[in-house]
Design brief:
Largest interface: A-B, 19 and 17 residues
Mean pLDDT of chain A: 85
Largest sheet of chain A: 5 strands, antiparallel
CATH superfamily of the largest domain in chain B: Dihydrodipicolinate Reductase, domain 2
Oligomer: heterodimer
CATH topology of the largest domain in chain B: Dihydrodipicolinate Reductase, domain 2
Mean pLDDT of chain B: 92
CATH class of the largest domain in chain A: Alpha Beta
Shape of chain B: globular
Largest sheet of chain B: 9 strands, mixed
CATH topology of the largest domain in chain A: paralog of FGE (formylglycine-generating enzyme)
Radius of gyration of chain B: 24 Å
CATH architecture of the largest domain in chain B: 2-Layer Sandwich
Shape of chain A: elongated
Distance between the termini of chain B: 75 Å
Number of domains of chain A: 2
CATH architecture of the largest domain in chain A: Alpha-Beta Complex
Structural class of chain B: alpha/beta
Helix content of chain A: 25-40%
Strand order of the largest sheet of chain A: 1-2-5-11-6
Structural class of chain A: alpha+beta
Number of strands of chain B: 15
Chain lengths: 511, 456
């Protein structure tokens, strides 16, 4: 009986086991099948569009060459925004999916800054290089142009990383402003103003604020007289979020000088471009103009140097340090004064305007920074800084006109933020230690890169501090310039640096 | 692919049979020789295989072009020259007459003169292959047009005369590769059986690790044309192209590039840097040098001394020497040990009378065309354009170093915007000054003789 029972039980057990096995297999197949269906379904364009709250991205995609092209092939969202299958596809899908779910349920999508997400450095994070190459396996189609050939040779041979997006940022989402992708030889040729041009530059006979006028144009700008004085340059060790190159703090004495109220505007820069632009066959060499002292200026740029944001009073950008320097020489020539780029010391003195705090207004960098997890969730109070500085929190991911901010105590606008500014000094991280004079210091005599100061619309609050230092990155800023040698006038890959001029007192007094 | 797998399987099975200890001994005793296919060497053929008829057009119908066309038709069956293009009518006439004398007439309507003759030739759909044999200044645009019109290509060295041209050639090479157009270049040493055998020996360690090299092309003066009345500047320069840098690239490109190419081949790379000298001692026309001496730096202390000269009554000779840790070779047929004893020699074939020959059976100038036809007819793809462009750029780097006196790096020359010659290529006067380059900068000095003949 016991045996029987055992047998019966064993029978039943085996049958159950078999049923379970069959059920298991069926379930697995079902899951697998539905899983595949789910993966497939959640990878369709409709699914993406269904909860991604960005109608403009959907529209710009449809206008782009990846949707609207003569071959009739449509490139789907996941073709670019996920890696190719078998190369971390599922992992990336899960990660992106979780992020999207979080964003969908816990964040206010109307506050997303889509324009910022479309900037190169952000776009690189959500577009997969291998996915580009998955379809574009032939980088040398027969129809490729000479410049395209040069650029793709650079891409295939470069030891420095270059992404497809460096040159092809807007191919997935159409941007009419960036669509111009050719040598813009008509750049700045037309003058719109109908008023009579200034006949002569400003006459200055004493040390006070004045309005400079560029003869032959309608362009003018304010110069602020800054008294000479002594100040503490650099940041003390206990300043929050400082970098080591900002110290040690040292006493620096400066003579009086004028500084422009605002960063050099497009109007000002275009006056220079119109007057001096050259159409050299070779871009990479300074054409020495043998007849008298004429200054030979920039070659026409590629694409739109203003990024389609507009010119006018916006700060001019994408010109090289060299171009900025030649601008000053030209401005000196046409005004009969001595204009130049500020030294790093002059810049910091002007920015601080007598203050010794991290900013020329009240604020703690530690509280204002957006770096760090908690900062992202609990945003700081940015009312004051936003009224003074165009930086990553309040900027629409582009430059603003000077009127958007208040001036510092010296009356200068946008010293911090909007665009970073070239200085005349070479950059050295330990120059503060090395400099012993402390009187009108001019930086190291040699160096690979120049100082830039002031942070930009892309910067975090910690990088718009008065003492924060940075420097030009010539190689990286020219990485996609298709010309060989590369332009000495325009940076192809830097959109947030400009400059401001100073005027020397000597040129007025004749000393 | 399948074959390789099978070979692997057999060797594995054999290994298992022999046992581990035995296998070790076997591996040590007969290390497998790296063979031609692993070294990616071209096939050595006795003739191009049969196949679909191939019709070729010749662009640049001078002596070398006509020679290349004859090499092409003699490399195998069913090969024809059906079209010609050249800047000058007399060059076309001479070439046509030559072919007519072989009873191979070329129809007059397929002959095109002028700078755009090549375009008209390549527009003929029946043309399958183009032979590019003009002065190298024109090669980049001709090669690009060939790729656009989907022709297979034989092209002469050098590839171009300046970096802008070189980049064009490399880009076109990649375009050709993408759509399966075969390209063979006139670097005949790389198709020469004795060179190929020597290369195989060296790659199998016959001279150990390569430590240095020497490449030389020293010869008597070369041809030049005197200007004839009635010739405009452009016509004169093209008829005397071998003496103008913008057309020829100077003789470090024109001839010496062969030796430079062999050194790059054996080294397995191009040099990183060049420092060189050169000058013009006895040249009669044009703007080129007649001697160069260049040190090509391959990195890790390895250099190749490159020299070339075109002056009469000097120590002359051409060739290459490569030194290794265990011997040296002339790259062509002989390997010596470090004491100068012959370690290995290429066995040349015997002629029909049984006498030892001193050359290989098939001239390399024909062998390279056999390779091209073989590649087209069998589908074994070949594209030599990029590597020849690299060797040409190596020569340009050396030339620039000598012309300027500066050290020139690969990176610099690869990206250079040097673009030689007048911006417009058309018959008529040319208002460009062709100065002979002088290296360095002058010494500022007031030293001059006080009277005629004073020693200063």
């Amino acid at each position: 009986m016991a045996l029987n029972l055992y047998r019966g039980k064993s029978h039943a057990g085996r049958r159950t086991k078999i049923w379970f096995l069959v059920l298991g297999i069926l379930l697995t197949i079902g899951l697998f099948w539905s899983g595949r269906k789910v993966i497939k379904y959640t990878s369709t364009n409709n699914y993406c569009v269904s909860c991604h709250i960005h109608p403009m991205a959907d529209q710009s995609w449809k206008l782009s060459t990846h949707y609207n092209n003569s071959s009739g092939v449509i490139v789907n969202c996941v073709d670019c925004h996920l890696p190719p299958e078998g190369e971390g596809y599922l992992f990336a899908k899960a990660k992106t999916g979780l992020k999207d779910l979080y964003g969908f349920y816990f964040k206010d999508s109307s506050k997303f800054d889509w324009e910022k997400k479309g900037l190169l450095e952000n776009a690189k994070k959500i577009v997969y290089e291998n996915s580009c190459l998955e379809c574009h396996s032939n980088l040398f189609p027969v129809t490729l142009s000479v410049n395209g050939g040069n650029a793709h040779l650079l891409y295939t041979t470069s030891k420095d990383p270059i992404s497809c997006l460096n040159c092809h940022l807007n191919v997935g989402h159409y941007d009419p402003a960036a669509a111009a992708h050719a040598h813009d030889s008509s750049f700045g040729v037309t003058v719109t103003s109908t008023e009579p041009p200034f006949e002569s530059p400003a006459k200055v006979d004493r040390f006070e604020d004045f309005t400079e006028m560029i003869p032959g144009t309608r362009v003018s700008f304010r110069m602020i007289a800054l008294p000479g004085g002594e100040f503490n340059m650099g940041s003390p060790d206990d300043e929050p979020l400082r970098d080591a190159d900002e110290g040690p703090v040292r006493k620096v004495k400066l003579s009086k000088f004028w500084m422009a109220e605002t960063e050099v505007t497009w109007d000002e820069y275009m006056a220079f471009f119109r007057a001096t632009s050259s159409q050299g066959r070779t871009e990479g060499t300074v054409v020495s103009n043998k007849k008298t002292d004429a200054i030979s200026g920039a070659t026409p740029p590629w694409g739109a140097p203003d990024q389609g944001w507009g010119r006018g009073d916006r700060p001019a950008i994408t010109m090289s340090w060299h171009a900025a320097n030649v601008y000053c020489q030209w401005l000196s020539q046409v005004t009969g004064k001595k204009f130049r780029l500020p030294t790093e010391a002059e810049w910091e003195y002007a920015c601080r305007a007598g203050t010794e705090t991290p900013y020329f207004f009240e604020g703690n960098p530690k509280k204002l920074t957006s770096d760090g997890f908690f900062r992202k969730i609990f945003g700081p109070d940015t009312t004051l800084i936003s009224s003074m500085v165009i930086y990553n929190v309040n900027s629409p991911s582009k430059t603003e006109e000077p009127s958007a901010v208040k001036a510092n105590p010296f009356g200068l606008r946008n010293m911090a933020g909007n665009v970073a500014e070239f200085c005349s000094d070479y950059y050295s991280p330990d120059f503060y230690k090395a400099d012993s004079t402390g009187i009108n210091p001019r930086g190291p005599s040699k160096g690979p890169e120049h100082v830039i100061r002031g942070g930009s619309f892309k910067s975090d609050a910690k990088d718009v501090r008065s003492a924060a230092r940075d420097f030009t990155k010539t190689k990286a800023w020219l990485v996609t310039d298709p010309q060989m040698p590369k332009s000495i006038w325009w940076y192809s890959d830097c959109i947030d640096v400009g400059f401001r001029v100073v005027c020397e007192i000597d040129s007025i007094t004749g000393r | 692919m399948k074959d390789i797998d099978r070979r692997k399987f057999i060797s594995r099975a054999a290994m298992a049979g022999i046992g581990i200890a035995g296998a070790g001994a076997l591996l040590a005793s007969c290390k497998k020789k790296i063979d031609a296919s692993e070294l990616k060497l071209p096939p050595v053929l006795r003739g191009a295989p049969k196949g679909k008829k191939l019709r070729a057009g010749l662009i640049g119908t001078g002596d070398r072009g006509t020679g290349a066309a004859i090499n092409f038709i003699s490399s195998g069956p069913d090969l024809e020259i059906i079209a010609l293009a050249d800047v000058f009518q007399d060059k076309i006439d001479a070439c046509r007459t030559r072919f007519a004398s072989f009873n191979l007439p070329i129809p007059e309507e397929n002959c095109f003169t002028g700078f755009d003759g090549y375009k008209k030739l390549m527009a003929i759909p029946e043309v399958d292959v183009v032979l590019l044999a003009t002065p190298p200044q024109f090669r980049p645009e001709h090669f690009l047009e060939a790729v656009v019109t989907k022709k297979h290509v034989f092209m002469e060295k050098p590839s171009a005369v300046d970096p802008v041209g070189i980049r064009s050639i490399i880009t076109s090479a990649k375009k050709a590769e993408a759509i399966g157009l075969n390209v063979v270049t006139g670097t005949q040493r790389r198709h020469q059986e004795d060179y190929l055998a020597t290369y195989t020996e060296v790659m199998n360690g016959a001279i150990g690790r390569i430590t240095s090299a020497k490449a030389f092309w020293n010869q008597n003066h070369v041809w030049y044309r005197e200007r004839e009345p009635g010739w405009n500047d452009m016509e004169y320069m093209i008829r005397n192209w071998n003496n103008f840098c913008w057309l020829c690239g100077d003789h470090i490109l024109d001839t010496h590039v062969h030796n430079i190419d062999v050194i790059n081949w054996f080294m397995g790379k191009h040099p990183d840097k060049a420092i060189g000298y050169g000058g013009r001692a006895r040249r009669v026309t044009g703007d080129q040098y007649d001697f160069f001496s260049v040190d090509f730096d391959y990195g890790n202390g390895i250099s190749s001394h490159s020299m070339c000269r075109q002056i009469d009554s000097c120590a002359n000779g051409t060739g290459e020497i490569i030194m290794g840790t265990e011997g040296y070779t002339n790259c062509q047929n002989t390997i010596w040990d470090l004491e100068g004893n012959i370690k290995w020699k290429f066995e040349y074939p015997k002629d029909e009378n049984g006498n030892q020959m001193e050359t290989i059976l098939i001239p390399p100038y024909v062998q390279e065309h056999m390779h091209l036809v073989y590649a087209i007819r069998t589908g074994n793809y070949v594209n030599e354009a990029e590597r020849t462009a690299e060797s040409t750029l190596t020569a340009i780097m050396g030339r620039t170093a000598a012309y300027t006196g500066r050290a020139v790096t690969w990176d610099e020359i690869f990206k250079s915007d040097m673009d030689l010659g007048p911006s417009k290529i058309e018959m008529g006067p040319v208002d460009v000054i062709f100065d002979v380059p002088v290296p360095g900068t002058p010494v500022e000095s007031n030293v001059k003789p006080l009277f005629k003949g004073q020693i200063i």
